Each structure stands twice: as C-alpha cells, then as structure tokens.
Amino acid sequence: QRAGRQADRSLAHRAVELCLISQSMVMSMFTAWISFEFVLQLVHWGQWKESGAMLVHHVSALTAWVLYMQGGYAHALSLIGCICEYTNPFMNIRYFLLELQLKESKAYMANGLAFLLAWLVIRIGFAPGVGGYMVWLQWAQISALPLWRSGLLLFFFGVGCCLNCMWGYKLLRGALKILFAGEHPKEGKES
C-alpha cells in the first residue's frame, strides 16, 4: 500500500513537471516571437500607422514575460496572453490580401469579419474577464510579491486590456464603415 501511494505521488509529481515544462516552452516561444516582432518593428519604424502603440505593446509584453519567467509567477495570466495571439492569423491574412490588391474581394470582407469577431471574443470578452478572474483567484500570491512586481503585473495587464480595447474599437469602427457606409477606410490614415 505504501508503494502504491509513492507511485501515485510520483505520477502526480511527473504530471506537474510536464505541465511546467510545457508552460516554459510556450512562454519561451512566445517571448521569442514578441522579440522577433519587436525587432521587425524597430527595423521598419514609421511604416505602420500605429508604431507608438505597437512599441508600447511589445516593450510591455517583453518586460512582463521576462519578469514572469524570472520570478516564476503569473503563468495563467501569461497563457491568457498567448491565447490573445490567436487573432494574429487574421491580421496577417489581411496584410497579404492588401498586398495582393484584393481589398474589394469577398475574401477580404470575410477575413475582416472573422478578425473582428475573433478580436471581440478573445481580446475584449475572454482575456480581460478571465485575466481579471485569475488575478482575483491568485490575489494572495500576487499581494505576497514585492510591491514593484505586483504593481507591474497589474500595470501590464491594464496596458494589454487598454490596447486591446483601443484596437478593438478601431476594428469595429472600420467594419461599420465598410458594412453600412460602403466605404473602405484609407490605409495609412486613422480609420
């Protein structure tokens, strides 16, 4: 019976180890991706209309993730940040459709609506609500962190939520212009 309990503990310990290894891999890949995007942004500075907001996004994400990995906290919140990136394929498809001069196509319209829907569901509905719930659930651990770490965690979470709401508003406004006014917002200008 004692050997059975030790085997159960060993299996549980191994499951936790695998989960932590998986989380570390995801966090490392995400940090590498954000770093790559950040370098691209710096190389092509000024070519995107939202360079300043994107700089805030990349610097805050990189700083937050490095702190979380180094400090060993906020894993659930970090994974919610990863889920937000599920909207990126729609943004990339939009870019390619624009480069192929297919802005008036049904594919562009369908992708735009899918992008808007994904953004609203994931970045506006899911991330702030579930992220806020994670902060609430883990408040005892967060408040036990040094004040500067817990303050930065809340600050970076707030920055992410604000940027997502700002960009979501712009996406929604652009979609409404296309759907109801029949106009396509000009690329390179505020939409």
Explain what the structure shows.
The protein is mostly helical and 191 residues long. The chain is 83% helix and 0% strand. The chain contains 7 helices and no strands. The longest helix is centred in the first third of the chain and has 42 residues, at 2-43. The radius of gyration is 20 Å and the shape is elongated. The model has no long low-confidence stretch (mean pLDDT 84).
Task: Put the structure in a nutshell.
This protein has 191 residues and is mainly α.
Any descriptors?
191 residues; mainly alpha; 7 helices; 83% helix; elongated
Write the layout of secondary structure elements.
Blueprint: H1 2-43, H2 51-71, H3 75-84, H4 88-99, H5 106-137, H6 139-144, H7 147-181
Helix pairs in contact: 1-2, 1-3, 2-7, 3-5, 4-5, 5-7
Helical content class: over 70%
Name the average pLDDT: 84
Distance between the termini: 68 Å
What is the gyration radius calculated from CA atoms? 20 Å
